[in-house]
Amino acid sequence: MQITLRQRLEQFSHLNQTRLFDFLEQQAGTLTDKTKLLVSALGMLPLSRLIAPTRSWKGRPSKDRQALAAAFVAKAVLGLQTTRQLLDRLQADRTLRYLCGWNSAEAVPHESTFSRAFGDDMD
After folding, report:
1. Alpha-carbon distance 94 to 86, whole Å?
2. 74: exposed, middle or buried (C-beta count within 10 Å: 0-12, 13-18, 19+)?
3. Which residues, including other chains, have CB under 8 Å from residue 52's CB and lie 6 or more apart?
4. Residue 67 to residue 52: CA distance in whole angstroms
5. For 39, 43, 102, 106, which has the most beta carbons within 10 A of its beta carbon?
């Protein structure tokens, strides 16, 4: 029996995600179905090409905009209604922080930073 290209790609994707999830669980801890969905979504979004990691302007350094964007994706995937709910979850969930790009609860920006994160792009 010969398999189609689509079936072959599905097999590759399944194997790749299985290995990725195993690696991430070793690094970040247990992944729930929702965090696996988040990993898949972040894998499909080229955030590094869409969002510059930092601004090169003088003055106070900007927070990592890619991590902020990943957190907003997490907010949607996890079905969180408010940024406050997202921040509470980021403070409590080490795995979610790791997936978004922060190594510690102290590294997660203040709520006001989330509110202003992409406001300058709207002008």
Report:
1. 13
2. buried
3. 65
4. 11
5. 102
For 96-112, write each residue's pLDDT tens digit.
999 999 999 999 999 98
Distances (CA, A) of 6 to 11, 40, 67, 85, 94: 9, 18, 33, 39, 36
- Nearest CA among 20, 17, 110, 1 for reference residue 63: 110
Which pair of structure tokens corresponds to residue 20?
């990725």
pLDDT greater at residue 118 or residue 30: 30
- How close are the terminal C-alpha atoms of the chain, in Å? 57
Q: Which domain covers residue 14, as residue numbers?
A: 5-122
Total count of domains within the chain: 1
pLDDT digit string (tens) for 77-93?
999 999 999 999 999 99
